[in-house]
Amino acid sequence: MAMIGHDDAEKSFLEAWHAGRQHHAWLLAGPQGMGKGSFAARVARFLATHGRGGGDQVATLDDPGDAAANKLVEAGNHPEIIRLTRQVKDKGKELARNITIDQVRGVIRRLHLSLSLGDWRVIIVDAVDDLETDGANALLKTLEEPPAQTLFLLVSHSPGRLLPTIRSRCRTLRFQPVSGDVMASWLHEQRSMLDMSEVRAIAAAAGGVPGKALALIDSDVSGMEKKLLAIASSGDPGNRLREALAREVGGTSNRARLELVIDIVPALVSQLARERPIEDVAPVLAQWDRIQRNARDAIRGSYDGAMVGFEIGNCLADLAPRQGQAAR
Predict the structure, then answer these.
(1) Out of 137, 252, 257, 298, which residue is the most buried by the measure of CB atoms under 10 Å away?
(2) What's the order of all strands across the beta sheet hosting 81-84?
(3) Which of 157, 143, 121, 169 is nearest to 37 (CA)?
(4) Is position 244 within any domain?
(5) Are residues 34 and 140 in the same domain?
(6) φ, ψ for residue 255, nearest 5 deg
(7) Residues 52 and 131 grouped into a single domain
(8) Are residues 134 and 202 in the same domain?
(9) What is the residue-level pLDDT of the chain in tens, covering all 328 positions?
């Protein structure tokens, strides 16, 4: 799939490579869903299949380079590309909350080995925001005294939360949200069966973040809206709908669904406010504020998805018309 929003980052990286002045650590910073992890993978493949830099003026990170090395990368077996991510816990489906100090130490031990293939070793940390405190400190020590011909690519959705000393050791590449027109054109190329009016609406809802736009397209947005409106209209007296919502958005594997709910609920509440008599708008606005607080807590990352989903359901249930309202 074609990438979008990577042009400036790609240009900056290739300029450094062509000049033979490659920084040892790059911080890939921007909203989640901008494709920073995909960009890191492209850089890693490029370095694994090309030389030290300062030579031929290669125009794109997608230049094939050495064919044998490229096959190893595509198979996920290149020995000099190391990925540091949250692991699946207890042989289940959910990911651990953090990247642990033991994982970081394991990578650091590998850095003391000689290169076995090619001119570069690439460490991708996706996301560096997920490092536990001890792990962040261990990584910092390595960034302060990096091994030769080793490049770190640190993916960060919230660079302001990182240790300032980690940020100061990196060159930052910022991935900015894409304009609405560019996003709509790109989305239409990816999903040509969609009507352009629908594409523009999704592009606007995604706020310039390609990953979020694709998630909105591939999710059952209308189905989720119906479920949320059913809670708001009925009050869900037996908690059945709220419990179903909590199950659907709970757990790390369902994070995309939770983010979808967080994205579409404010608009639904605004719709309900417009439909109510003026004297009944204040309670709706109070629930809107309550939902926004829950969304902020969820976005900060330290949350239980099922609990957030159930609480959002509570907010919607409190909007159900009372007997007197229904009679009007």
Answers:
(1) 298
(2) 81-84, 121-126, 150-156, 25-29, 171-174
(3) 157
(4) yes
(5) yes
(6) -60, -35
(7) yes
(8) no
(9) 567 889 999 999 999 998 888 899 999 999 888 999 999 999 999 999 997 776 667 889 999 889 999 999 999 999 999 999 998 876 666 778 889 999 999 999 999 898 888 889 999 999 999 999 999 999 999 999 999 999 999 999 999 989 999 999 999 999 999 998 898 999 888 888 888 887 887 887 788 889 888 877 777 777 888 899 999 999 999 999 999 999 988 877 677 778 778 877 877 887 888 887 887 777 777 777 777 776 666 655 556 788 888 988 998 898 887 644 443 3
